[in-house]
Structure formats: structure tokens, C-alpha cells
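Record now logged underneath.
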Amino acid sequence: MSPEFNNPHALWLALLVPVYLYWTHRRVTTGAVRYPSVRNLKTLPRSFRQRCRFVLPMLRGLALLLLIVVLARPLRRVETQELPSEGIGIALLVDRSGSMGDPSNRLMYDGKLMLRFDVAKDAVRRFVEGDGKDLKGRPNDLIGLLTFATYPQTDHPFSLDHASLVGVMNRMSAEKPFLDKYGKPTDDPNEVAPLTDEQGRPVRDAWGRMVPRTNPMQFTSLRSAIEYAARKIILLAEDLKRPGRLRSYTLKSKVMVLLTDGEPTVADQRQGQGPDFPDEETIRMLTDNGIKVYFVQILSRERYRERPDGTVEVIVPRQGGLFARMQADQEAAMANQAIEEARKLARRTGGEHFLATTGDQIKDIYARIDRLERSDVGGRTVFSHEERYGPYLLAALGMLAGEMILGATWLRRAP
């Protein structure tokens, strides 16, 4: 880095130093003792001390140059990055239910099959940090990471420390679908404990197979997760408006990016029956607080078609007997209801709804959301300075002291 000076114009005084040295060298002085003639003394050989007398004007010249540098006040610039003053509050709401980690439901992503939750983690990382291509990253936005299964939770609070958020995301995993004999979550078929009745006997299904003990934390509670994330965004906005904050930050908009892979599997506590789809009360909470929802939905079935009215119809193959056809119709009805509820939620809040059947589609969807919600207000860079004239001043004083000592002792000249 090039040196910086608080008063750089003082450096022009350095041009006068050679003039001053030349003037002192050519200056005619009158001796204290007069001699008839010193012509013959000039022919005498010069001693070593006489040859070293050039050191005195050299020390004085260097000292003057260093003093001029001191007058210019050299500085060392210390760069500090301030928080941006404006951005978007983004709640990344990710489904971590057991189906997201099911090995039988892998997605094609970047040329390889990956677990849905691993695809979600990489898509979130690219969305937050950028990938150098389609995604530019979100350095100015307050982003919070929230996940949900049976219950929602905050894995990383809203922050500008995105590296920490990505680190937390990388260490996460989906809920295990079953419990072992010790009551711990597991996805190993050899460790799964059977479900037992009141007498402690294994419960069997209609075909005589033992029913596994299901992990109660691996289900999908959609409405409670959306309301939980909405309350977190509302609290963030209220906290930013609180007087007395050291830093001012304005939310340009409030956004929720939700990714899930299925229908709600937790009963609606308000209605007492049916899955807990977001109701009018949930939508009103979002709209009243200006929270837009971008709903990313992963379909297990790859076949679906657009209806004339713009809605989507999932097609489940109806094969086998009557029971299989009834089950296929039920799956299709549940999938269609989930899509319609998700579309209604996104449309009413001003966001968008997306369907994905592959991991690459999820990556493209997050790229589209990134383009829709941009905050290009850059952070202000503040520079603090540290005075650095001290070493130059000490060196100049040392050279002047050296000139005085040498001139009065070893290099002293007789009158």
C-alpha cells in the first residue's frame, strides 16, 4: 500500500534541503585566528577524520528530510466495515421431517442422487453465500435459519454473520423416522424397536408385519411452523425500531422462504381434525405485517399437469386392485390439497409458489427468488487512521544529536 499523509503538501519542503546544504557549504566564514597565508596548508595530505567530515552535513540533511516527513504527518489507515443500513429480513424455513432424510426419496442434484435435506442445505448455502454464477449472495440482508418437523425451532437467529449460519446448516440433519429400544431416534432398520400395546406385546398390521416404533418428532407441522417464523420476523422488525439502538438498520421488506416435501402430517389443533394447513388467521398475520411467502414444494410424484384455471393437478398412477386405486386417489387428493393451500398462501401474501421434482429445479427456484428479492444497498466502509510520525521524529532527533556530538568531538574542526 502507498503511504498516506495528513498534510502531503509539506513534502514540497524537501526541495529546499539541497539548497540549504549547498548554501551552508559555500558560505564564507571568517576565522577566529588570522594567518598571513594558508596556501601551503592546502598541499598537505587529508587525514581520515577530514575525509569523514561529509557525515555531518549528511546527518543534518537526513534529519531535515525526516522532520519534513513529520510535518506531513504519515498515517496508517485501518479499514473497518460497518453494518449496511438497509436490507431484507429473510426467514429461511426448511422442513427437516423424516421424509426429507428418507434414502428412498433421493433427488438428482448436480449429476448425483442426494437426500432431500442435503439438497436443501446446499441450496440454502448457495442462496446465502452465492455461487459466483447465478447467485450473488445476500451480504446486506438479515437472515435467520428456522427448521420444522413436528415442532419448529430457531437454528440460527437473524444475523449478518452468514458464515456462522451456513456452518450451522452444514451440521444439521433431518429427523430420524423411528426409535430404537432405548427410545433414541434411528434410521437403521436393524435397531428399530417394534410398537407395543398396553401389555407390551408387538403391534402387527393387517398383513401380520410388526409395526415399527415411530419417532414422534419426525412429522410435519406446517401451520405452526409458518406462524412461528412469522412471529420471529415481527419481533425482528419491532426490535429494529426500538429506540436507543447503537446501529440503525431499515428492513426494506420481510420475506419467508419455505421449503417442504409433503403435506402436513400433524393434526390441526384449532379444528381438532385434519392436517394443519395455514388458515385465514395465519394468512392475516402474514399480510397485516407485510411478510411475503415464497413456497417451495417438493413433489414425490413426477407427474402433474396444469389445469385451465392455473391450478395444478397431481396424477398418481392407479394400478392394481380396488384398494390400490382408492389409495392412489387419496394420495392425489392430499397432494392437490397441499398444492392449492400453498398456492393460496403465497398468492395472498404477495409471494410465489414453486413446484420441484428434482434437486436441480430447487437450485433454479432459489436463484429465481434471489432475483426477485434483491437489496443492492452496499455497506458503508469507514477508515480510521493511526499517526505514524513517531519513528521519523525519533530518527531525526537522533541524527541531529549525532551531528552535534560528532561535530563537538571526533569531527571537530579547529578555528
